[in-house]
Amino acid sequence: MLFIFDMGGVVTNTANLAERISKELNISKETFQNISGMDIDSKDSLFARLSNGQISAKTFWEEFSKKSGCKILTDYWHVFFHADFIQGTVDIINSLKKKNRVVCGTNTIESHYLNHLERGDYSIFDQTYASNILGYSKPDLAFWKIILLSENVKPEEAFFIDDRIDNCEAAKSLGINTHHFVSPELLRKDVEKYF
């Protein structure tokens, strides 16, 4: 079985960077989300283009600066990002790896991807599939199709874990087994037959 783990909210805790960045820029969180496009479901938003690897962090901040009137020279996505492992999930990954292939399938941005690389966070996986490299973000079905193609497995031979129900539903529509992550304890009950 191929296990595909989301990173933020499943393997690591998530940080509300929009709030911290907006405070640093002295603008409201809503203004920050509006300008960046974090609050809309559009493949053309500034944040979606960053997540899909279509623009760099540098370009994101240049465009954000023009739209907001704030002069931004620092990549706040990188300097404020300090995710910690959820140890219970890491323990499950280590148990699964004894008999299965375990990969990371994550929506991320260049800054967070580089931060995880610097810290060695992805080393717990056999492979990492990141949206900023793939060019597609969940719940776009192309995200999973690329992973299945790369791993040479059928949908029914894959098991996807994510904290977002819409991502789980999209993966399930392809025939992939899914688990909507709430806690390591509930995940363990669902996957320990694969240990």
Structural overview:
The protein has eleven helices and five strands; from the N terminus they run βααααααβαβααβαβα. A five-stranded parallel beta sheet has the order 3-2-1-4-5. α1 (about 15-25) packs across α2 and α6 runs parallel beside α11. The chain is globular and about 55 Å long. It is of the alpha/beta class and about 200 residues long. It has helices spanning about 15-25, 30-35, 45-50, 55-70, 75-80, 85-95, 110-120, 130-135, 140-150, 165-175, 185-190; strands spanning about 1-5, 100-105, 125-130, 160, 175-180. The protein starts with a strand and ends with a helix. It folds into two domains: about 1-15 and about 85-195, Rossmann fold (3-Layer(aba) Sandwich); about 15-80, no CATH class. Helices cover about 45% and strands about 10% of the residues.
Spell out the blueprint of helices and strands.
Layout: E1 2-5, H1 17-25, H2 29-36, H3 46-51, H4 57-68, H5 76-79, H6 87-96, E2 101-106, H7 110-119, E3 127-130, H8 131-134, H9 141-151, E4 158-162, H10 165-173, E5 177-180, H11 184-191
Parallel strand pairs: 1-2, 1-4, 2-3, 4-5
Helix pairs in contact: 1-2, 6-11
Summary tags:
195 residues, alpha/beta, Rossmann fold, 5-stranded parallel β-sheet, 11 helices, 47% helix, globular
